[in-house]
Amino acid sequence: MCICQTISVKYTEDYFPVIFVHGVSSTAAFFKGSRDFLMLKGYKASELYATTYGEGIYTKTFEEEIHCSYIRQIRRMIIAVHEYTQKKVDVITWSMGSPISRKAILGGNCTENNRYLGKSITTLVDTFISVGGVNYGVEWCSHQRHHNVCNLINSMNCECKLLKELNSKPERYEGSNSYSLYSLTDFIIGRQCCGQICGDLKHANQSLEIPNYNHLNIMTDTIIIQYNLLNH
């Protein structure tokens, strides 16, 4: 596990610590701009965290899956930051980082190997923000099931077992508050997934459509909106 910010002093700050979770073929370093912005707004380095799961830029996107190991890694991160700070955490996710984090918080059994994650850790999270998240999948997966990334168990296919589980719950479980930011011009995830907006988040306090953004700048250029949602 790679933790980008190392804690070396006793935690004394007032903000909830923020954990960033990247998408497929990305790394924790992707969030440096977000980190710098939040520090300008008064966050300390000891309040900002990220970790890299998977192979980063070496990931073969069409062969990727939402692995149990990724989910367990993010779950451990959330628990570790909470236990150190003795505070709830905020979670900002991008792309595939959203379903990974949602399952990490929900707990239960992993879909591909039935490994037990533990009970829900909803109470550890104050605000959950999904940005360009594949919450209902990616649109093109409905025609590309032969790729691992679109399998029917643990993938970005809206019909896969994992996403069906995440979207079947009767109430919010990602945290005390949840929000989604998405764009209908994000052609990486597309628009319609099993009759839903692909980037929408079920039971969110608010889902915000950001017009004319792509899959990259929906994350990088909405940091002011993300900051305001964190401090609602």
From TrEMBL:
Alphabetical list of SUPFAM superfamilies matching this protein: alpha/beta-Hydrolases
Pfam families: Lipase_2 (PF01674)
GO function terms (MF aspect): lipase activity
GO BP terms, alphabetized: lipid catabolic process
InterPro entries: AB_hydrolase_fold, Lipase_EstA/Esterase_EstB
PANTHER family: FASTING INDUCED LIPASE, LIPASE RELATED
Protein name: Lipase
Organism expressing this protein natively: Syphacia muris
